[in-house]
């Protein structure tokens, strides 16, 4: 009998603690604090986890209330850590998902494949404006030095933006590095219809 009461008390405390996580997320002062809450909420309910994502997006990354489907997509990537295939209309805001998902993971890296240099450069600039983000755009004209490769392997960038030819060529040896692979939180292919498979 005593163990059942003890279990129920722990269950109530856990429920209250996880609800507090959303409140904490709504009152955080940085994305670093949000990352800590994401780690604490690993085993919380999906509702609590999505509340943290929504608060992080609205409080730190974008000034508008995020669409629920965006929150769901980021939640899927950050908490479920499963593949996600997203096909959405032009005005959906797909870019927001790959721009922000790595910022919810402490030490997370987003690998973004974009086949058009102009769009890649634009994305790099947009991402660079986000708090806690450090992006690099790598294309055929980039000086691919050992120093750049080492910075990438060490996690100096939160977002790596490149064309498919760089991903399949120069970047390949970096992508095979086990410690680098562990930090990759998202691999996104934008404008997939332009990529020759």
TrEMBL record:
Its EC number is 5.6.2.4. It comes from the Eukaryota. Residues 12-21 have a biased composition (Basic and acidic residues). Keywords: DNA-binding, Isomerase. GO terms for biological process: double-strand break repair via homologous recombination. InterPro entries: DEAD/DEAH_box_helicase_dom, P-loop_NTPase. Residues 74-195 form the DEAD/DEAH-box helicase domain. One of its GO terms (molecular function) is ATP binding. Residues 1-11 have a biased composition (Basic residues). Residues 1-21 are annotated as: Disordered. GO terms for cellular component: chromosome; cytoplasm. It catalyses: Couples ATP hydrolysis with the unwinding of duplex DNA by translocating in the 3'-5' direction. Belongs to the helicase family. RecQ subfamily. This is DNA 3'-5' helicase. The lineage of its organism: Eukaryota, Fungi, Dikarya, Ascomycota, Pezizomycotina.
């Amino acid at each position: 009998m005593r163990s059942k009461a003890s279990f129920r008390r722990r269950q109530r405390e856990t429920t209250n603690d996880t609800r507090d996580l959303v409140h904490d997320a709504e009152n955080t002062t940085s994305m670093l604090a949000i990352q800590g809450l994401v780690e604490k909420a690993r085993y919380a309910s999906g509702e609590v986890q999505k509340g943290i994502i929504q608060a992080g997006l609205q409080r730190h990354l974008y000034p508008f209330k995020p669409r629920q489907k965006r929150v769901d997509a980021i939640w899927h990537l950050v908490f479920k850590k499963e593949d996600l295939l997203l096909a959405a209309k032009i005005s959906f805001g797909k870019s927001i998902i790959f721009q922000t998902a790595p910022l919810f993971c402490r030490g997370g890296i987003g690998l973004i494949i974009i086949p058009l240099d102009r769009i890649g450069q634009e994305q790099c600039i947009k991402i660079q404006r986000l708090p806690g983000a450090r992006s690099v755009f790598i294309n055929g004209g980039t000086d691919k030095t050992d120093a750049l490769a080492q910075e990438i392997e060490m996690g100096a960038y939160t977002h790596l933006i490149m064309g498919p030819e760089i991903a399949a060529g120069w970047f390949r040896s970096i992508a095979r590095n086990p410690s680098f692979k562990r930090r990759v939180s998202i691999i996104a292919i934008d404008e997939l219809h332009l990529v020759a498979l």
